[in-house]
Amino acid sequence: MPDVPSDQPSTSRTSYSMINNDEARERISSQLFTSIPSLNEATSYIIQSTSYLTRCFTGDELSDEMSSNNSRMPLSKVNSSCNQNFKVLSNGASSDSNSSNKVLESENSSQHETTLVKLSPPNGVSMFQSLVNRAKKTIRGSAEDIGWLQRETGMPPIKDGTERFSEILDDIRNNEHKLPNSLVYLLVPGLFSNHGPLYFVSTKTFFSKMGLTCHIAKIHSEAAVTRNAREIKEYVEEIYWGSGKRVLLLGHSKGGVDAAAALSLHWSELKDKVAGLVLAQSPYGGSPIASDILRQGQLGDYVNLRKLTEILICKLLKGDLQALEDITYDKRKDFLRKHPLPLDLPIISFHTEASIGPSVLGSLSHIAHAELPTVIDGQSAKLPVVVPLAAALAACAQLLQVRYNEKSDGLVTRRDAEVPGSVVVRPTTKMDHAWMVYSPLNNNSSETESSQVFEALLTLLLEIDQKKDLHNSTRLPLENDL
User: Fold this and answer.
1) 244 lies in which domain range?
2) Counting C-beta atoms within 10 Å of the first and last residue's C-beta, which end of the chain has fewer, N or C?
3) pLDDT, tens digit (0-9, with 9 covering 90-100), for 183-209
4) Do 40 and 178 belong together in one domain?
5) Do 120 and 248 have their domain in common?
6) Residues 445 and 388: beta-carbon distance below 8 Å
7) Average pLDDT, stretch 125-137?
């Protein structure tokens, strides 16, 4: 029984009512738990359940927060510590069955030496705040990342080349072609292009008919950016040493990111071999689709999109998940701050907006041919393999529009496709991400073809390169005179 003033009644009820200090309350609480085994078991069960639920709903954030506070134990240790501490308290009480109302204290006796351990339960406010923060992170998604390059300080300004591009495109549709045969044109395909045999094929055929040397880089489209950058560098060197001609690079989607990385990482070796770079619908600043799938705390956590994407890329397509991670905002920020594009490289950024009207539901993309075993007139029959890519990309474009209020081609937002220091082309014609590389099954001859768009982009790039050379040639004598 705790000591009480002598002028107070010595009854148990009165002595409890007069206890006002924290230490006494803790002692009474300890005695209560050790005296009633059922309360001891219930308390242990509550602590175990709270620890489990906290880990499920709040992840590591709350654990880190609690472990940083010296007044509370980490949640990872609460379960084992509580069981051990209550066991010690119970053993101390069982040593004397007649002293259930005694306060458990540290004794010098070796048989009953125990220590009172102070435990603080999980903070409900902290748990609630962690849940709120997690919900806010999920709702915000990539809203703060889209267009980050335009807000980055120290970036070179962009120039609008849309008007000149439209003029060149009109000339091409009137059969006025200006691309010379003194250059080699290298097309770099994007993600999953290895599984679309007709990727860039119509453009290469179109260029070949004009007598131009055009190649499609045979890279592993599902490989990491740095790996593809090295392979593109080797492609350019092989073309240059074999033909003696400089190369104009045109990369679509992730292919533009790979090509830009090749020039950023190996510019000293490629400077005299590359005439310029076109990035068409490339997530140069990053992709909200990739970020929302792979980033922790985003939608991919709740529907297992990250795991499904890993199975798709790594198991089915035999690729590397790093290929998708490399176009997330976090990876792009880190890479571009370390490896910016050279300032003296002529660059064009091209981005479009996908149509989200009902007409896209009937549009099919021709991605491959299927050969049938039957023979017609001595030749095997071929059937087109078509996929409703336009409808899928329209759905993605609608999602990005609703969630982030951003216009996109279905995969890449317009703001993330603009490269600092480049000439930007912003056409008003609706073109989705797949239209640029796969011919529609019901192609209308009156409409612009993707191969014509690529020719116009490369023609504009060549003009920029020529103006740069002219500017350098007229500036050098002035510098020498000084």
Assistant:
1) 149-470
2) C
3) 999 999 998 777 677 789 889 999 999
4) no
5) no
6) no
7) 71
